[in-house]
Amino acid sequence: MKDATADPSESLAAALGRVPSGLFVLTAGTGAAETGRLVSWAQQCSFDPPQVSVAVNRSGGALDLLPDGAPFVLNVIPEGGKALIAHFGKGFAPGEPAFDGLEVIREREIPPVLLASHAYLVCRVANRFDAGDHVLVIGRVTAGAVLHDGKPTTHVRKSGLRY
Predict the structure, then answer these.
(1) What does the pLDDT look like over 93-108, one tens digit per residue?
(2) Which domain holds residue 111?
(3) 3-class state of residue 24 by DSSP
(4) pLDDT tens readout for residues 120-151
(5) What would the pLDDT profile of 16-38 be if each residue is shown by its tens digit?
(6) Residue 92 counted as domain residue
(7) CATH code at 89?
(8) 136 inside domain
(9) Model's pTM, two decimal places?
(10) Cβ atoms 88, 23 nearer than 8 A
(11) Number of domains the chain contains
């Protein structure tokens, strides 16, 4: 077995960081209590019913808007979507406007859909599980669409132990 570095913890971090993921903006809440958060650990986890799993960092306030049954939208960032990454990568304080300057669709009782996203999935929280510094949210998919041709953004980290 090849050891990439002399420090096993660096080798582990490098190997873990090579697990590819997509980049997404999770939108939650409606009206004055809406927000958006950059997430990268999202994956389809069931065909029937269609469901996705999303690991949400405990910091940032999005979890407060994701109790059982709450709606959320998983917006798929398109390849080359650096503006969305920069906008949502900084995070937002509770009550801070997250969608200023962005084109969104707002439908009653559904969090904002980003028109610049490649695709989106409307979900309802079906379950939540403790996952260390994150909470794994399972969302039952209720609607969705592809908004633009192209490909989604994929992401590989240098280290699997930090963002």
Answers:
(1) 888 999 999 999 998 8
(2) 21-150
(3) strand
(4) 999 999 999 999 999 999 999 999 999 999 99
(5) 999 999 999 999 998 889 999 99
(6) yes
(7) 2.30.110.10
(8) yes
(9) 0.92
(10) no
(11) 1
